Task: structure prediction
Amino acid sequence: MKLPRTTLILILLALGLGGFVYFYEIRGATVREEIKEQKQQIFSFAADDVQSLTVKTKKLTLNLERSPESSNLKWLIKSPVSGPANDAIVSYLMDLLVKGKSERTLSTPAKELGEFALDQPQATINITLKNRQSHQLLLGKSNFNGRFLYAQTDPATKPDGNINVLLVSTDFANAVNRELSEWKQPVDNSQKLPGLSTPLPTPTNGK
Result:
């Protein structure tokens, strides 16, 4: 039996719509979920869990420690000098560690670590938690378009001989590549009273 042309067109449209729904809604959802899963949280600890940080760059090794709860200051510099830390600067780095995500994770042979400049990283961040657990983040070079940094967390070789290389925000480089003076708490000059100037003697009229 020959189908009317209109019916045939409707059948073809229905098949086409069904194919679109399958590839976009079902298949597309699977692909989108895979992409979403690639963006993994870098670390799972909270900011309050961190007791101390050691930031090592090409120019500086900085040791930071959480100050006692009774203190108004959140962080203290323990070395290379001692003193209060710039809480805003430390909080910026802490936010990246706690909330930062890896855009993508690459599994690559351990012998290729140098390809990402992770054999001699531009920065190493050692994190010690209050429960004595420790974590480490290595920051390598930028990827090909400069949008991300290659990184490695808690370096370890997997059973297959590969390592996991992460793509993280370049904000990490901005957070750690600082001068020592930037890590120090700024001097609050607003609390200082202006110096009293000695009034000049009033000239007297000679008689």
Summary: The mean pLDDT is 82.
